Amino acid sequence: MLTTKNYFSEIKDIDWASMPEALSKGHNLVVGSSQNNWSAYNTNENIKRVVDAYFSKLGDYLKKNAPAKAAKSIPEKSVKTAPKTAPRLNYKGLKVEIRPASATSSKFIIWDIKSGQKFANEKFDSIEEAKHFVDTNEMVLVKTAKPVPEEDEDENEATPIERIDTDVQFIKRYASMHGKVKTQAQVLNLLSGLQKAILERRIRKDSPYAKEVNLMQEQLIKAYEKMGDMAEIKIDAKNLKRYLEIAGSQENMLSITLLKAYVSLNGKKGMKERAEKLIERMTKAVQKSKIHKNDKYAKRLNDAFESLKNFVAGNADTLKISRAELNGLMGIVGDDLFGQKKSLNGTDYEDDEEGAIVVPSGELLGMDFETIGLQGKYRELIGDPSVGFSAMVYGLPKSGKSTLCLDFAKHLAEHHGKVLYCAVEEGFGYTLKEKIERLNASHRNLYITDRIPSDLTPYQFVFIDSVSKAGMDVTDLEELRKQYPGVSFIFIYHTTKEGRFKGVNTHAHEVDVIIEVGKGEAKATGRFNAGGQLKI
Asked: How far apart are CA 34 and CA 43, in angstroms?
């Protein structure tokens, strides 16, 4: 019997790549739940139920099947390829073909012959499984095959907003499952994502849809516990009506939707036809007054429009969006474009029971880690830091710490994403207003608060001015960075009469960059630059 005490020792020889997708995804959930001595498992009853159900399912599978052990190497001749031919099926006029997912894959996808596109993202272990999906989703597929007229696009009664609330996003996904056959892995994927959002407080107890979220979570758990490899998802008519009302209450602003489409083309080959269609969509949106020149993202959209035109007219095979532009779009489109994954450089490595990853030194040298693409005077000061970096800024009173940091915050907001400046010490008042006016630091991506909010997920950069006034110690800083690994933090410190920052030296060891402000200049040392200087 699998438990939290023996799980990692019992599964250490399993090759997860060869296991059923539902069990592989369940393993990922267990790894997340095991962090901090299984704290999520021990404190959240819903997560405990899901993990226990997974233990039971995995245990039953291992009894019936010998665990597939990870091989050190696989001879090239032993790699199995999927059949090169697959049956064509005709269901009431809907012509589809079941094809291998790739040249070397053993899984299958369903392909619409007429439109030349695959249906959804489902992959199946066998042709029979794919046929079953077509059988049980016939009407859904017919409806999907009919293209939506472009002139009707984005015309509904939903409220256009910059970013759809997290709870509404999950309700949309759940409602879309109704009447469709889903695999265990798909149900578990939605459930684990929902529970992670709740634990990270991106969905809060005081959400206006807390009742619906709790019900959705319970239904997903019941479905996962009772279902086999696949099952049709059915939502009670009354609940479904409510979910659809919530799902239809919000939609992204059209300008953001178009910017997302623009970002999705980056670095991919054969995208000129899609680029031409996107240009046409942008043009129609302006002609029909769906987007006006006073739209807050009009300039970004116009820049994307020009970039697309140059790409279509040029000879390049791929659209290449600059790193600075991509970073700047992060806070707009709502996607973590450069979020760090547990895998390194796109490759997954086996971790031990403590979560440690061991990488061959030769492979590490060949890796290219993402940075924020910092340019200008601040690159000269601190270098080009990685995503989720941390910095310490300290200096005597009136030395210019806040001036430097507000200017830095403005630079990041202009070029790299959403910024939150927590003016804990100064608060909302004349002096703060004067600094913002003097530095011309007002920007749509720069937000000001007089305290540290409980949820920092909307921001890519957070300034805390000051650490001592916020009552934080080194443990608080460490917990903050662990909770938001993709957010970069800049901590501002008071100094002693001798000019040293207040607090133990441990603080200095916990940050990537240290900036000292004094005598009209800033001096930096850190991991990304040997030592830069900047006149204030």
From this structure: 12
Domain ranges of the chain: 7-64, 81-147, 152-251, 253-321, 377-535
Query: Are 371 and 363 contacting, i.e. CB atoms less than 8 angstroms apart?
Result: no
pLDDT, tens only, 191-217: 888 887 887 778 888 888 999 999 999
What does the alpha-carbon distance between residue 228 and residue 247 come to, in Å, rounded to a whole number?
Answer: 28
Residue-wise pLDDT tens digits, 249-268: 888 788 888 888 888 888 88
Q: H/E element holding 159? A: strand 159-161
**Rounded to 5 degrees, what angle do the CA atoms 125, 129, 133 make?**
125
Check: CB of residue 466 under 8 Å from CB of residue 425: yes
Q: Are strands 108-112 and 117-118 parallel, antiparallel or unpaired?
A: antiparallel
Q: Is 88 helix (H, G, I), strand (E, B) or coil?
A: strand
CATH number of 377-535, picked from 3.30.450.40, 3.40.50.300, 3.40.50.970, 3.40.1060.10: 3.40.50.300
Query: Sign of dihedral through CA atoms 437, 439, 444, 445?
Result: negative
Phi, psi (rounded to 5 degrees) for 345: 55, 35
φ/ψ bin of 148: left (φ > 0), alpha (ψ from -120 to 50), beta (otherwise): beta
pLDDT digits (tens, 9 = 90+) for 322-357: 766 666 665 566 544 333 334 444 444 444 444 455
Residue 134 Cα to chain centre, angstroms: 31
Distance, in Å, from the CA atom of 512 to the CA atom of 351, rounded to the nearest integer, reads 25
Find, among 437, 340, 436, 319, the residue nearest to 387 by Cα: 340
Angstrom distance (rounded) from CA 296 to CA 405: 25
Res 490: pLDDT? 95
DSSP structural state of residue 502: S
Integer Cα distance of 417 and 421 in angstroms: 13
* pLDDT confidence of residue 9: 81
Digit-coded pLDDT (tens) for 137-147: 543 443 343 34
* Alpha-carbon torsion angle 302, 305, 310, 316, nearest 10: 130
Burial 246-256 (b: 16+ CB within 10 A, else e): bbebbbbbbbb
The CA angle 227-228-233, to the nearest 5 degrees, is: 45
| DSSP secondary structure, 239-284, as one string | HHHHHHHHHTTEEE-HHHHHHHHHHHTBT-BS-HHHHHHHHHHHHH
Handedness of CA 405, 407, 410, 412 (dihedral sign): negative
**pLDDT at residue number 142:** 35
